[in-house]
């Protein structure tokens, strides 16, 4: 499912226009992105948690030369599914 499919389904389920729903989806993505950038966590009970995880500095290998390189520490976005979402995926 892509973004336009998601917008269409939400619009049908909520009884809203696709234009209004697209605005909502864009706003949701923007809020989640800004929160993760700020290091905040977003908890949606039953659905899951959006957060930023810290990756430590580590050693890697340059595949072209075979030399060992240092990969710097970084923050990456992550999603942890909630109990209800995990149960739905098993069904």
List keywords for this structure.
91 residues, alpha+beta, HU Protein, Chain A, 3-stranded antiparallel beta sheet, two-stranded antiparallel ribbon, 5 strands, elongated
Structure notes:
A hairpin with a 3-residue loop joins β1 and β2 (48-55). The mean pLDDT is 95. The chain is an alpha+beta fold. The longest helix is centred in the N-terminal third of the chain and has 20 residues, at 18-37. Helices cover 44% and strands 30% of the residues. The radius of gyration is 19 Å and the shape is elongated. The strands form two sheets. It has a three-stranded antiparallel β-sheet with strand order 1-2-5. Strands 3-4 form a two-stranded antiparallel sheet. The chain has helices at residues 3-14, 18-37, 83-90; strands at residues 42-44, 48-55, 58-61, 68-71, 74-81. It is built from three helices and five strands, in the order ααβββββα.
How many separate structural domains?
A: 1
Terminal CA distance: 19 Å
Widest sheet, order of strands: 1-2-5
User: Which stretches are low in confidence, meaning pLDDT under 50 for 5 or more residues running?
Assistant: none
Q: What is the CATH architecture term? A: Irregular
Q: Which sequence of SSEs, written as H and E, runs from N to C?
A: HHEEEEEH
Rg measurement, Å: 19 Å
Strand content range:
25-35%
| Structure summary, number of beta strands | 5
Indicate the mean pLDDT: 95
Give the helix/strand class: alpha+beta
Q: CATH topology, what is it called?
A: HU Protein, Chain A
| Fourth-level CATH superfamily | IHF-like DNA-binding proteins
Helix content: 40-55%
Count of discrete alpha- or pi-helical segments spanning 4 or more residues: 3
Q: Describe the biggest sheet?
A: 3 strands, antiparallel
């Amino acid at each position: 499912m892509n973004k336009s499919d998601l917008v269409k389904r939400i619009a049908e389920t909520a009884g809203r226009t696709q234009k209004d729903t697209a605005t909502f989806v864009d706003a949701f993505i923007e809020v989640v992105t800004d929160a993760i950038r700020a290091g905040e966590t977003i908890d949606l009970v039953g659905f899951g948690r959006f957060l930023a995880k810290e990756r430590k500095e580590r050693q890697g290998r340059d595949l072209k030369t075979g030399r060992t390189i240092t990969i710097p520490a970084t923050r990456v976005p992550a999603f942890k599914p909630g109990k209800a979402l995990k149960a739905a995926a098993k069904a």
